[in-house]
Amino acid sequence: MRHLIDPMDLSVEDIDRLLNLADDISKHPEKYREVCRYKKLATLFFEPSTRTRLSFEAAMLELGGSVLGFSSADSSSAAKGESIADTARTVACYADIIAMRHPKEGAPYVASQFVDIPIINAGDGGHNHPTQTLTDLLTIRREKGRLDHFTIGFCGDLKFGRTVHSLIKALSRYDDINYIMISPEELQIPEYLKKDVFERKGIPFREVEKMEEVMPELDIIYMTRVQRERFFNEADYVRLKDSYILDMDKLKNAKEDLSILHPLPRVNEISVKVDQDPRACYFRQALNGKHVRMALIMDLLGVSADED
Ligand code: NCD
Question: Which residues bind L-aspartate per the record (predicted)?
Fold first, then answer.
């Protein structure tokens, strides 16, 4: 049984296979319209979501399957005190594959220990978000044509941002990537990433506080929202929330082929004026998320398109 809990569950070969399949799906959607007929995806979302849940659901529907699930903990038996294990065991009686988002780190892993259908981690607390990572990798490959040899700046809440943590882990297997971490001191990447990923693999990285200072060097900038729901007190959030706002002025010194990524939702960290700039990739990125989730669902369910 295969699950997707951590981005490192995927080898570089797995990633290539999934991204290639996602490309084929977007080029020839008609080939894939029935491949998941009679299969059901359950989306168990104990935390808010727009893109992740809806792109999972759209993905399954476009593969000819069906979807069921809930979109908040309040509307599930979690509100009555049910454990993750019991919820997962129950849903496994009704569905063929589960995508789960939970505020507690490790919850999808716990669920995976109790069921014999694939579990996909759709975000666990401040920890991992492997399907956003697949989305980001597909976006980088589509925008840049490669997954190596570039300078990437991660900007904003690098402490609590699970999409940042997962993407850094996944990218650490590719060659010649320069990492620049742009954040206030209090929102720097966690120590475990510095030690277990960068230091252990001998990968250099820089930490800076000002985005202007490094803008001309960047091939990719990965913007993030300050993760209000993971702060221990509101005053710290209010103090840090406007640390970075990417606007047209800050892009003046940027490369002409810079790619601006953001997992979304955006609060105010990218000015809406930037949306018109061809370097803004974040809505294309949201679309890529559907294609790569279609590929992942097919892969975990072991289905393929019949070749004639
Ligand atoms: C992200 C998440 O949930 O971690 N959103 C997403 O899945 N696209 C980013 C965020 O909430 O800031």
Answer: 80, 162, 225
127 a catalytic residue:
no
Could you tell me which residues come within 8 angstroms of residue 196 by beta carbon, excluding any fewer than 6 positions away? none
Angle CA 128–132–137, to nearest 5 = 115
Do you find a cis peptide bond into 184, omega within 30 degrees of 0? no
The strand pair at 220-223 and 119-124 is best described as unpaired
Instruction: Give me the catalytic one of 40, 101, 127, 159.
Output: 101
Is 162 known as a binding-site position?
yes
Is the pTM for the entire model greater than 0.90? yes
Residue 260's identity, in one-letter code, is I
Say how far apart CA 83 and CA 280 lie, in whole Å. 41
Whose CA is closest to atom 7 on ligand 1? 52
Candidate of 163, 168, 244 to mutate for ligand 1, largest count of ligand atoms within 8 Å of Cβ? 163
**Residue 270: pLDDT band with limits 50, 70, 90:** very high
